[in-house]
Amino acid sequence: MKKRTGYIAMAAATLFLAACGGAGSTDDSSSMAESSSQTETTDLLQQVQDAGVIKVGVMGTYQPYNFLNEKKEMDGFDVDIAKEIAEGLGVEVEFVSQEFSGMIAGLKADKFDMVVSQMTITEDRKKQMLFSDPYITNQVKVIVSEGNTDILSVNDFPGKQIGVGLGTNDETYLRTVLMPEVGEFEIRTYDDVITSLKDLDAGRIDATINNMYALKPVIETNGFKIKAVGDAVKSDQAGIAVNLGNEAFIAEVNRILAEIKEDGTYRDIFVKWFGEEPPAE
Predict the structure, then answer these.
(1) Element (H, E) at 145
(2) pLDDT at 143 over 80
(3) Are the C-beta atoms of residues 103 and 115 closer than 8 Å to each other?
């Protein structure tokens, strides 16, 4: 990994400018408001610098994105991206496991500083969190058991039992977009991918939707007899998320993401976990 040291200088400059702004704002209420806003947006930068560590929220059960490896260490694509962000900030990284359905609440409660756990960027979530630039795009497909010939696309969902991750963007899509479009079907929610695929393999649900990057290692490890059918249902872009008001922090994250894409580090991580070149942007 390549050393990225821009954070220290940036943080020092930010603190200096904030202090100067505070000293010269006694006669101008608008300047005071601006200074206050600048201080708020540098809080996370200051906090991380002072602590020397950044806490990262991950599911920890979503291979190959984030999961516990044989050494009981957090591993995966998201984990490697988070490590690069931490290195670029000049701090250590600590991973905090959190079920996805509680990820936003955990962030708001300061259980962790940022989320790097395939958090899809949506307009609704933008009202609650601040996102980085996208760091991956996932193609979501319909998944059924190998012997299933009844479901060839989402148009065959009516009257069926469909599994999906609890609190995910996929769940929102099924409830608010797809069901009104194709007709009623039963939705069963899960806290992890493996359990949903076990139920699919055992015939307890008829189908699920997920991306193939996530399914491939699970299928290989567990020997599930399942398959993807039809065209991609949708494409999702995931971003790194922090609490609102931390624009300076996200600007630094975006700088690091751009740098690792430029120097080839991102490409190496992508090939390591997915066995193929990242798609052209």
Answers:
(1) strand 136-145
(2) yes
(3) yes
pLDDT digits 0-9 by tens, 91-100:
999 999 999 9
Q: What's the pLDDT at 212?
A: 81
Beta-carbon count within 10 A of 117 CB: 26
Summarised one tens digit per residue, pLDDT across range 13-30 is: 443 334 444 444 444 444
Please count the CA atoms within 13 angstroms of the CA of 135 that sit on its side-chain side: 34
Classify strands 129-131 and 136-145 as parallel, antiparallel or unpaired: unpaired
- How many whole angstroms separate alpha carbon 191 and alpha carbon 166? 6
Top-confidence residue, 221 or 273: 273
AA letter at 12 = A
Q: Three-state SS across 226-279?
A: EEEEEEEEEEEEECCEEECCCHHHHHHHHHHHHHHHHCCHHHHHHHHHHCCCCC
The DSSP element (H or E) to which 212 belongs, if any, is helix 212-222
Tokens for 165, please give them.
């991750």
Q: What is the pLDDT of residue 45?
A: 87
d(CA 148, CA 1): 45
Contact 224, 203 (CB under 8 A): no
Which residues on neighbouring strands pair with residue 131, listed in sequence order? 241
3-state secondary structure at position 130: strand
